[in-house]
Every structure is written in structure tokens, then in C-alpha cells.
């Protein structure tokens, strides 16, 4: 049997309980601190605005891009205009804020025209562009992309949509929490439900803390990643809890204390924990490195979530369980019921 | 103990075969095609049309790669895009204006697959390129319009019933009808209540002040708003058909929003222009009284009148005073075509429906010698296209407008009038354009990351768990096939977040097999026999797998309920993936394990 993780003796995880809960508390508070001092860098899906991706035939001159767009005086604050590279030196991402009154989707057209002028658009490119817009032609399209400045993606989001998204995101988060608490409370016991959700909300806050600290862009797909991670790490806690319950019921574990039982449960599931997370992480890393800019932050959020997920389900959820005072009797209600039934 | 009854193996085999068949069409790619459909729902596309198209193409020596007639539309396949473009113009010319001819992409999967109902997944705009709009209907404008229409109806009704009234005026969310005395008040009330049952009519009597206050009841308001969205959707359908886009999506989202997705469209400016325009035609009478006109020009427009600009020809923009009352609107137009008038200048020929024709005859009959203004209303602003003098009664419902317009203008106006007017203006509140090359890149990147991630997991599993690792990998692969086939069966739209969800689901699904394999190892360590270890491993792991998958599913469902757009695509795949993973990781993998180990007499060791 080829094994990487085989533990002869149970590791006394619970005796580190104080230390790990302190670490968690500190990281949690730090995350909250960052979230307050450096608000999340929400994508335009939330804030509204225009994002365009353009590709230059040569390496882009970012200063020129910025000045030619600022010259348009589209309104709004200059610092809200973002010009940044996107993967390669030829790809540029431009983000423009929504300006009151001119919420029209025409901003992107204006900006692109300004860029064309600044890039000394050739007659040939103009011809190609009008040919391609009239009808799909792959050969000409290829020529256009190789030789000229092209607009690869435009997104415009009006101001009214964003607020709704934030509201829906929070509602989804609430629904996940309530749903999981109810399920775990039925399947296990309320102490399990509460410690699982606390441990995993702490993961969510830490992911958000990372996004706030590094000012990574928080988009809808990142939100999806965060919620998926929430479900995924709860599942991690559930595996450990399942083992704890089983241990409580096992005859051979009769004489052990609660913390010994938890230690044993964590140790026996450790190998599975690391292999499973390793496998999921392999997939996520493939997305991080090969998925391109659209999946970058999605994969990043998952990576942080998976790493902290392992940590929190093992070293936060279980100490919390101990803290809430779980006992053998909590887990074996059937015996108790029988005792009550017989006078 | 580790043997399945025959039917369980059969279930596995049948599921795998069916899933493979439904997965396959996704790998065949697409070829350029031209789609022919009726410009109106009454026009049939049948064998006769097909023969006509074949003939026309043969005459031009254009080779087709197959014709397909289904669902009242004809699809013709071509070798490459160049032939496709040429063929499109040939077909359009052969069939004329009654048919809409659009460029399309057809799946290259064999015919027997399509016959079985196995079609590839739709690709979202982020994967194939195109435009996405989210439009919000301006409900305030829709209500304004409804009040205007109701006021007009009431005026006409009172005139018909010969009830003398002072004025019908809008006041906030009510209409007020000013009347002379108590007698007319009663008569008016009775007339209005009898004809318009959805209106609530209240009397207001003061000193010498007789008024009817009319309000719309809440159901009526809801109906008006609902109708506004519905009418806008059908108008958008007409306009998009005129643009010749294949497989557009136009759907209502929420109470007052409309999603429009046009795959393959590159020219967003044109698309935006056509979609967003609210042009409609209004026919109103002109006031030629010079005194009133002078007064209006001085900035003091008399009540009940409006000062509009005449479309300028050679730079002189005349002002014309017209009555606010609308005699006829674009709603009564049954057809509009661009053409030329007697002086050979561009014109739009309009045919009115029977109702419109009779109104028009009445109006021209009553107002001989006066001028009538044809007003093109766009974005709430009217512009007089032409204001001819009525020489005599005009029957038959044929109207022609010409004035200061170019041929292109005439074409656009005809299109907009033909496609119908928007019930209320709309604002674009979200727009997304993705170029086709970016879409291709996204597919490639998504596909590659899934493939390499899968390969990494497979290699690791085989090294670590040997035979059981191989079986786990097989289970994971079958999970992928199940998931993709399910998405194809549902004809779901695949987006980049959807591909990410497939990858992530695979990464998470391996958990079940790891749980099982670890459990089997543990049972062996505890001294169980190999056969007992397999059974114990699967039985013990099942409860855990169920619990952990349900918690993940709860998160997925929450995303599905509250997510929109990108998140929803992710959530659908994620939820389905959790379900298929339970089936493949437990049922399918157990079946294979049973086949490998269950029928051996003596199993000394397990390769786990």
C-alpha cells in the first residue's frame, strides 16, 4: 500500500485548541480590519460602468491610452479611469466609471474611436473594420486582428443593476448558512451545525479579507467561487463530524474522553482530507494557470478557500465543538429515549 | 457478496452508452449555413421553397453541403463562409422580402444523432462572441402613453354620445373631465362608465365646478405595464428578424426588463440603434391660424397645441403648430415599404389596417382644405416629416410620406414602422460584447484547464490507489460524460463560468472516491478480508458522501435561486454535477469493482 499519510498515533489536535482559535481570531479580525479600511474592489457588475478590452497589433503604450481617454472628458473622476495590462503587452483593459446623465452605452464607442485616432488607424484597417462589421468573414477578421487595433470585449452595466446584485449575493449567503445549519442540526445536532457554520464563515471572511488587502477585483464569478467554497468546506467539516459520531457510538471508544475521540476522528480522516483537497486544488491550479484572465480571480478565491477550508474544519470547527460542550449523550439520543420510555 | 444483479450492470451500461451518444455531438464542430424562415408567422417554408432555393443555387453553380427542412425553416449547409455569404444574397434575391434569410452555424454531427435528439450544447456569448443587452422598459413613459390614449378614447366617446365637455386633462395619476353643469356631468359619467369598465369614475362638484375624476384601477395598471413589456418583446422580435440574426434570444427578466442576446453580431452600434429606437408615426392636424402660430413662436404655446420642428430640407427648419390630439398612430400600420414618390424622391409607402383606413378616411373627410402632419416620434420627440394639405377624402388605406429624407432614411423608417412601435422607450442598462476570437480563446482555455486538471488527478489516483485509482478515474470520466450529456439533453447554454463549474465539480467529485478508497484501506488495516473490506468500505463511506454532497448542494441551490447571468450558469452545472457525481462515484465505481473482484474465488490482496 502506497501511503503518504499514515499516522501511528492520534495527533492531539485538541490540545492546540487555544493556539489555533487565537490564530483564527487574529486572522479573522485582520480580515475584517482590511475589509473596513480598504473596501472591496468591486467589478463593474456591482458598481456599474464600462469595461473594454482592446488588443493592439504592437505592444500597447499605456500612457497614450490613458491620456487619449482622459482627453475625452467623459466626466467623473480621473482616478476612476483604470487602464491596465491584461495578460500580454498587447492587451489592455480599460475601465470607465458611470457618469450621471450620460448613462448611455455609447461611452465605449467614443473611447474606442479616441484610441483609434491616437493609434493612427490606417486606411486599410478602416476598410477591414467596415467589411467585417457588415458580414462575418473569417479571413478578413483574422487580418484585422493581426494588423489593427481591435475591441475584443465591451461590458456596460447601468447603475441600477449593481445594488440588486449585492442584495442577492447577501441573500444567497444567508440562505446557504440557514440551509446548512438546519440540515446539520437535523442530521447531527445543533452544536455541530453551529461550529461548522462559524468555522466556514470565518473562511469566507478571510477570502474577502485577501481580496480587500490585495485589491483584487471582486466579480460575480468570485462570488460564485466564495459560495461554492462555503459548501465545500462545510462538507469537509461534515466528514470529520461523521467520524466523531461514529467514534461516539463505537464500543472500543467507550473509555476515551471527548477530546481524545475528536483527535482520533481527525487523525483517521487526515489522509483523505489532504488527498481530496490536493486533487481539487490540482484542478483549481489548472484553471489558475491555464484558464486565462477571466478565470484568474475565480481560481484564486478557490485556492485560498480550499487552503483555509482544511485549516478551519480541522482546527477551528472541532475546538468549537468542544467549546460548545459536546458529549457522548448528545450523539446517542436513541438510548436516552429508551431510558425515558421505561419508568 | 460483491456482485450486482444483472440489471444493475445493464443500468450502468445503458446509462454510459446513452450519455456517450448525447455527449458526442459536442465534438463535431459546426459548419456555416444559411437559414430561411418566414418573415411573418403566416408564411410557410415548405418543399416548394426548398425547390426554389435549390434551383437558385444551382443556377449560380453554388455547391451546398446539404439542405434540411424542419420546424418551418430551411437550413442550407455550405463548405465555407465565403460560399455561405454568396449563397445568402442569392437566396434572398430568389425568395424576396417575405422570407428572412440569416447566416447560421449548424452542427456537423451525423444525421442519426440529430434524429435521436442528440444536439450539442448552446454556447454562451462569452464562448462564441456576440452581443448581450439588458433593457429596462421605462414604465413611467408607458403610463404616460396609456393616459394619453385613454384621454383620447374618452374624448371620442363623449363626442360620439354628443356630451359637451370642457376639457380632458391629466392630473397626476388621474384624468379630469371638466363639464358645464350637473346634467352633462351625469350624462358623461354614464357614458364613460358604460364603455370603459376598467375605469373608476368619481364626481367632484363645487360652486359652478363640475368635474369627473377618473382613475385606473390597480389591475389595469398592472395589465398596462405587463402589456408594455410584451409588446416591446414582440417588437424587438420583429426588428431582430429584420436584422437577420440567427437564433436570437429575447426574454423577459423580472417585471420590467428584457434580455436580448444576438450571437455572432459584431456591429454593436447598428444593433443598438435598431433595438433602442422608438420611432412611431402619428397623424395630427396642423393649426394654420397665423395669430396662434406667432404666439407659439414667441414662446407662448396655446393649450392643446404643440410646436414641432419640420424635418429640414436644405437647412431651413420650419416650426409647425399642431394639435396635441392624435388622430392615428403607427399601431394601425399593416405594412411599410421604402420607395419613391411621383417626383422621384425617397418615400415610405404605408398601408393601413381596416381600422386605420376608416379613421383616416373620416379624418380626411372632416378636414378638407386643412393641413395634416405626419409626425415621426422618436425618443419622445416629434418631428414633422411632411404636412400636406388635404385635397379630398382619402380611402383605401394607402398613405405615402415623403419629404426631407434620404434613401437610407426611408429604409430605416420603413423597417421601424413595419416592425411596430415600442410601447414604451427602453434604456440599455447592461451591455456585453464579446469578439469571436476571444470566444474561441475562452473555449480553448476552459477546455485545456479541465483536461490538464483531470489528467493530473488521474495520474495521482492511479499511482496512489493503483487498481482502485484506475476505477476511480473511470468513475470520474463517466461523471464528466454524464454531466456533459445531461447539459446537452437539457440544451443548456454553456458559458465560461459553466466550464469552470465542470472543472471544479470534477475536482470535488473525486472526494467520494477518495473517501471510499481510504475506507477500504482502513477496513483492511483492521484485519477484514478483501471482499469484506470492499463491502465495508462502500457501506461506511456512503453516509459521509451523502452528507457532504447535500451540504454542497445547498450552496449550489442558493446560487441557483439568487444568481443571475454568469452565476446562474455556474450554479446549474454545479448542482447537476453534484448529482451525477454521486451516481458515478458510488454506483458506477462499485459496479466496476464488483466486476473486477466480485467473481474471483480467492482474493488475497486488494490493489488499493
Automatic annotation (TrEMBL), chain A:
Q: Which residues cross the membrane?
A: 16-36, 168-186, 193-214, 220-241, 282-300, 306-326
One protein family per Pfam:
SecD_SecF_C
| UniProt KW keywords | Cell membrane, Membrane, Protein transport, Translocation, Transmembrane, Transmembrane helix, Transport
Q: What is the primary gene name for this protein?
A: secF
Q: What is this protein called?
A: Protein-export membrane protein SecF
Q: Where in the cell is it found?
A: Cell membrane
Q: Does the keyword Repeat apply?
A: no
Q: Which family does it belong to?
A: Belongs to the SecD/SecF family. SecF subfamily.
Its annotated function is as follows: Part of the Sec protein translocase complex. Interacts with the SecYEG preprotein conducting channel. SecDF uses the proton motive force (PMF) to complete protein translocation after the ATP-dependent function of SecA.
Ranges for domain Protein export membrane protein SecD/SecF C-terminal: 149-324
Q: How does it sit in the membrane?
A: Multi-pass membrane protein
Q: Which HAMAP family match?
A: SecF_B
What the entry lists under InterPro entries is as follows: SecD/SecF_arch_bac, SecD/SecF_bac, SecD/SecF_CS, SecD_SecF_C, SecD_SecF_C_bact, SecF_bac
**Annotated coiled-coil segments of the chain:** none
- Spell out the subunit comment: Forms a complex with SecD. Part of the essential Sec protein translocation apparatus which comprises SecA, SecYEG and auxiliary proteins SecDF-YajC and YidC.
UniProtKB/TrEMBL annotation, chain B:
**Start and end residues of each SecDF P1 head subdomain domain:** 314-424
Functionally, this protein is described as follows: Part of the Sec protein translocase complex. Interacts with the SecYEG preprotein conducting channel. SecDF uses the proton motive force (PMF) to complete protein translocation after the ATP-dependent function of SecA.
Q: What is this protein called?
A: Protein translocase subunit SecD
Which segments constitute the Protein translocase subunit SecDF P1 domain?
Answer: 229-288
Q: What is the lineage of its organism?
A: Bacteria, Pseudomonadati, Pseudomonadota, Betaproteobacteria, Neisseriales
The record ties this protein, via InterPro entries, to: SecD, SecD-TM, SecD/SecF_arch_bac, SecD/SecF_CS, SecD_1st, SecD_SecF_C, SecD_SecF_C_bact, SecDF_P1_head
Assigned keywords, A-Z = Cell membrane, Membrane, Protein transport, Translocation, Transmembrane, Transmembrane helix, Transport
Location in or out of the cell:
Cell membrane
Amino acid at each position: 500500500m502506497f501511503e503518504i499519510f499514515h499516522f501511528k498515533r492520534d495527533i492531539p489536535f485538541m490540545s492546540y485548541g487555544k493556539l489555533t482559535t487565537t490564530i483564527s481570531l487574529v486572522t479573522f479580525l485582520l480580515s475584517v480590519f482590511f475589509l473596513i479600511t480598504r473596501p472591496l474592489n468591486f467589478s463593474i457588475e456591482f458598481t456599474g460602468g464600462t469595461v473594454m478590452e482592446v488588443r493592439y497589433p504592437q505592444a500597447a503604450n499605456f500612457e497614450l491610452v490613458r491620456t487619449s481617454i482622459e482627453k475625452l472628458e467623459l466626466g467623473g473622476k480621473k482616478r476612476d479611469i483604470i487602464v491596465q495590462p491584461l495578460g500580454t503587452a498587447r492587451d489592455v483593459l480599460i475601465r470607465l466609471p458611470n457618469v450621471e446623465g450620460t448613462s448611455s452605452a455609447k461611452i465605449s464607442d467614443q473611447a474606442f474611436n479616441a484610441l483609434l485616432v491616437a493609434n493612427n488607424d490606417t486606411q486599410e484597417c478602416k476598410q477591414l473594420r467596415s467589411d467585417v462589421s457588415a458580414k462575418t468573414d473569417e479571413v478578413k477578421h483574422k487580418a484585422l486582428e493581426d494588423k489593427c487595433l481591435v475591441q475584443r470585449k465591451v461590458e456596460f452595466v447601468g447603475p441600477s443593476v449593481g445594488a440588486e446584485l449585492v442584495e442577492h449575493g447577501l441573500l444567497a449567503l444567508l440562505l446557504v448558512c440557514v440551509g446548512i445549519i438546519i440540515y446539520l442540526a437535523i442530521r447531527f445536532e445543533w452544536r455541530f451545525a453551529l461550529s461548522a457554520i462559524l468555522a466556514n464563515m470565518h473562511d469566507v471572511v478571510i477570502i474577502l479579507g485577501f481580496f480587500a488587502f490585495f485589491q483584487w477585483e471582486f466579480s460575480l464569478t468570485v462570488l460564485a467561487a466564495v459560495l461554492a467554497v462555503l459548501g465545500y468546506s462545510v462538507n469537509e467539516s461534515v466528514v470529520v463530524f461523521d467520524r466523531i459520531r461514529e467514534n461516539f457510538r463505537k464500543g472500543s471508544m467507550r473509555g476515551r474522553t471527548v477530546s481524545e475521540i475528536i483527535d482520533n476522528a481527525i487523525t483517521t480522516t487526515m489522509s483523505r482530507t489532504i488527498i481530496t483537497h490536493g486533487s481539487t486544488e490540482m484542478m483549481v491550479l489548472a484553471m489558475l494557470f491555464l484558464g486565462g484572465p477571466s478565470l484568474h480571480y475565480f481560481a484564486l478565491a478557490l485556492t485560498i478557500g480550499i487552503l483555509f477550508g482544511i485549516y478551519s474544519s480541522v482546527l477551528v470547527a472541532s475546538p468549537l465543538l468542544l467549546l460548545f460542550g459536546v458529549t457522548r449523550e448528545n450523539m446517542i439520543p436513541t438510548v436516552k429515549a429508551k431510558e425515558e420510555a421505561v419508568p | 457478496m460483491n456482485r450486482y444483479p444483472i440489471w444493475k450492470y445493464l443500468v450502468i451500461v445503458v446509462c454510459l452508452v446513452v450519455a456517450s451518444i448525447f455527449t458526442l455531438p459536442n465534438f463535431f464542430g459546426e459548419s456555416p449555413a444559411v437559414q430561411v424562415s418566414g418573415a411573418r408567422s403566416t408564411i410557410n417554408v415548405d418543399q416548394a421553397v426548398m425547390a426554389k432555393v435549390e434551383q437558385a443555387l444551382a443556377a449560380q453553380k453554388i455547391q451546398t453541403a446539404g439542405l434540411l427542412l424542419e420546424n418551418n425553416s430551411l437550413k442550407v449547409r455550405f463548405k465555407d463562409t465565403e460560399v455561405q455569404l454568396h449563397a445568402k444574397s442569392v437566396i434572398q434575391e430568389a425568395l424576396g422580402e417575405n422570407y428572412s434569410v440569416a447566416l447560421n452555424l449548424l452542427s456537423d454531427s451525423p444525421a442519426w444523432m440529430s434524429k435521436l435528439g442528440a444536439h450539442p450544447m448552446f454556447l454562451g456569448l462569452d464562448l462564441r462572441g456576440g452581443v448581450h443587452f439588458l433593457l429596462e422598459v421605462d414604465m413611467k413613459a408607458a403610463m404616460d402613453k396609456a393616459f394619453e390614449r385613454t384621454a383620447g378614447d374618452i374624448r371620442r366617446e363623449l363626442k360620439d354620445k354628443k356630451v359637451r365637455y370642457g376639457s380632458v386633462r391629466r392630473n397626476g395619476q388621474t384624468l379630469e373631465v371638466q363639464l358645464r353643469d350637473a346634467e352633462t356631468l351625469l350624462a358623461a359619467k354614464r357614458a364613460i362608465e358604460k364603455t370603459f369598465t376598467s375605469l373608476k369614475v368619481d364626481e367632484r362638484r363645487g360652486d359652478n365646478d363640475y368635474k369627473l375624476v377618473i382613475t385606473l384601477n390597480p389591475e389595469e395598471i398592472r395589465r398596462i405595464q405587463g402589456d408594455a413589456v410584451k409588446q416591446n418583446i414582440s417588437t424587438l422580435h420583429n426588428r431582430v428578424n429584420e436584422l437577420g440574426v440567427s437564433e436570437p434570444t429575447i426574454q423577459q427578466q423580472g417585471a420590467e426588463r428584457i434580455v436580448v442576446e444576438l450571437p455572432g453580431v459584431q456591429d454593436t452600434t447598428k444593433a443598438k440603434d435598431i433595438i433602442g429606437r422608438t420611432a412611431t408615426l402619428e397623424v395630427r392636424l396642423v393649426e394654420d391660424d397665423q395669430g396662434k402660430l406667432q404666439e407659439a413662436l414667441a414662446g407662448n404655446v396655446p393649450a392643446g397645441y404643440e410646436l414641432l420642428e419640420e424635418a429640414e430640407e436644405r437647412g431651413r427648419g420650419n416650426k409647425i403648430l399642431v394639435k396635441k390630439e392624435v388622430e392615428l398612430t403607427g399601431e394601425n400600420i399593416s405594412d411599410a415599404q421604402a420607395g419613391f414618390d411621383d417626383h422621384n424622391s425617397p418615400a415610405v409607402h404605408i398601408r393601413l389596417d381596416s381600422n386605420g383606413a376608416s379613421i383616416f378616411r373620416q379624418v380626411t373627410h372632416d378636414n378638407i382644405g386643412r393641413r395634416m402632419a405626419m409626425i415621426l416620434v422618436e425618443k419622445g420627440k416629434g418631428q414633422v416629416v411632411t404636412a400636406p394639405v388635404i385635397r379630398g377624402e382619402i380611402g383605401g388605406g394607402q398613405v405615402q410620406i415623403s419629404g426631407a429624407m434620404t434613401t437610407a432614411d426611408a429604409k430605416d423608417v420603413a423597417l421601424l414602422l413595419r416592425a411596430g412601435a415600442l410601447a414604451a422607450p427602453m434604456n440599455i442598462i447592461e451591455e456585453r460584447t464579446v469578439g469571436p476570437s476571444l470566444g474561441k480563446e475562452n473555449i480553448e482555455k476552459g477546455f485545456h484547464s479541465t483536461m490538464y486538471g483531470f489528467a493530473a488527478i488521474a495520474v495521482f489516483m492511479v499511482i496512489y490507489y493503483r487498481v482502485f485509482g484506475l476505477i476511480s478515474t473511470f468513475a470520474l470520466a463517466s461523471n464528466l460524460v454524464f454531466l456533459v450529456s445531461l447539459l446537452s439533453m437539457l440544451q443548456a447554454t454553456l458559458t465560461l463560468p459553466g466550464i469552470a463549474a465542470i472543472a471544479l465539480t470534477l475536482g470535488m467529485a473525486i472526494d467520494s472516491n477518495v473517501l471510499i478508497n481510504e475506507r477500504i484501506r482502513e477496513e483492511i488495516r483492521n484485519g477484514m478480508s478483501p471482499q469484506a473490506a470492499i463491502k465495508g468500505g462502500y457501506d461506511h463511506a456512503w453516509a459521509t458522501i451523502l452528507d457532504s454532497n447535500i451540504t454542497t448542494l445547498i450552496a449550489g441551490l442558493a446560487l441557483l435561486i439568487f444568481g443571475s447571468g454568469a452565476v446562474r450558469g455556474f450554479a446549474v452545472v454545479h448542482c447537476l454535477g453534484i448529482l451525477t457525481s454521486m451516481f458515478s462515484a458510488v454506483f458506477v465505481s462499485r459496479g466496476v469493482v464488483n466486476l473486477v473482484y466480485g467473481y474471483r474465488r480467492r482474493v488475497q490482496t486488494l490493489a488499493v
